[in-house]
């Protein structure tokens, strides 16, 4: 079961992080995806285990690629991905989605 379409009320532009180049971060081709946005400040852990403050969590349909370090523009704000999780119930009746935690 996927996150219901009627919940995906926002649109985000994702620029997937591809690595660091000679002049700074390198991003892939931007693409747009429907999403659900939760603006809430909370303390989370990044991929290295350090505690960081997140201001926004974005929920995307399953299969959305948004690696750590990617740029996400939503509601007119550009932010950076702290970490992302594929939330898959493995066939259970839960809403499968990709959860992206942003600065």
Keywords:
103 residues; mainly beta; Thrombin, subunit H; six-stranded antiparallel β-barrel; two-stranded antiparallel sheet; 8 strands; 0% helix; globular; Head-to-tail stopper
How would you briefly describe this protein structure?
This protein is 0% helix and 59% strand. The protein has no helices and 8 strands.
Question: What does this 3D model show about the protein?
Answer:
With 103 residues, the protein is an all-beta fold. The chain has one domain: Thrombin, subunit H (Beta Barrel), CATH 2.40.10. Helices cover 0% and strands 59% of the residues. The protein has no helices and eight strands. The strands form two sheets. Strands 1-4-5-8-7-6 form a six-stranded antiparallel beta barrel. The chain has a two-stranded antiparallel sheet with strand order 2-3. Strand 6 and strand 7 form a beta hairpin. The chain is globular, with a radius of gyration of 14 Å. 25% of the residues are buried. It comes from Nonomuraea thailandensis. This is Head-to-tail stopper.
